[in-house]
Amino acid sequence: MTMLHSQPRVDVDQVVAVDGVSVTFRGKRTSTQALGEVDLTVRRGEFVSIVGPSGCGKSTLLKVVAGLVRPTTGSVLLHGEQVLGPRQDIGYVFQRAALLDWRTAEGNILLQAEMRGMDMAAARRRCAELIEITGLSGFERAMPHELSGGMQQRVSLCRALLHEPDVLLMDEPFGALDALTRERMNVELHRVCRETGVTVLLVTHSVPEAVYLGHRVLAMGPRPGRVIEELTVDIPGERDYATTLTTPEFQRVSGRVRALLGSPQGGD
């Protein structure tokens, strides 16, 4: 009798899988373990916030997912395929907008298309859509010095989304902005992510930002960084900023995150 062996079930909605990843940077005389063993998964369309003390390896973890840093141990899968080098199917947003001074807002966005060899007609259509979505209409020809910090970060976000990546990695993207602009950008980012359906991994030092934006919040401990607790944020997808911050669920999650990080109640 022929025996039928069932294949393991593949979770098609699992976009990112980090399994036992650690990173040690080795110099000539010393070595530094940036990450302990980290495990995490991110599902399609999910927004996962990562918080932790400075130097705990949050940014290193993003770079491992992006294929910019090779893990010392463990592996990263993107759509079930092992990440062995820089990926073309992700978008990356840094703390600084890093715009080219001599290019317009539109020109900075389209730089992505030029570097990737995208069809320029399609890229210009996508650029126009993103400019509309992010509220940059009317500023297409503006130079970087003519834009506020928040607008510059919107341009950076458009550039990262131009090639319609499956995954958006964001490393403290609003850290250099004033508090009010940061709140407005939180609202804008939440709306853009809902409209595009992109999967997001966000590194931030701001507890309110992490909880307001995230479906889940991962709290990391001191270096070598490990995920010490994962918290689900049970807040409706449609979120008014001021109202959300007063809800019992927001207070519960943010309070727990602060307790884990040893930070005082209130503030960032």
From TrEMBL:
Which residues does the UniProt record annotate as the domain ABC transporter? 18-247
List keywords of the entry alphabetically: ATP-binding, Nucleotide-binding, Transport
Output one GO MF annotation.
Answer: ATP hydrolysis activity
Q: Which SUPFAM superfamilies match?
A: P-loop containing nucleoside triphosphate hydrolases
Q: Does the keyword Transcription regulation apply?
A: no
Superkingdom of source: Bacteria
Which Pfam families does this UniProt record tie to the protein?
ABC_tran
- Gene3D superfamilies linked to this entry: P-loop containing nucleotide triphosphate hydrolases
Designated name of the protein: NitT/TauT family transport system ATP-binding protein
Q: Which organism is it from?
A: Xylanimonas ulmi
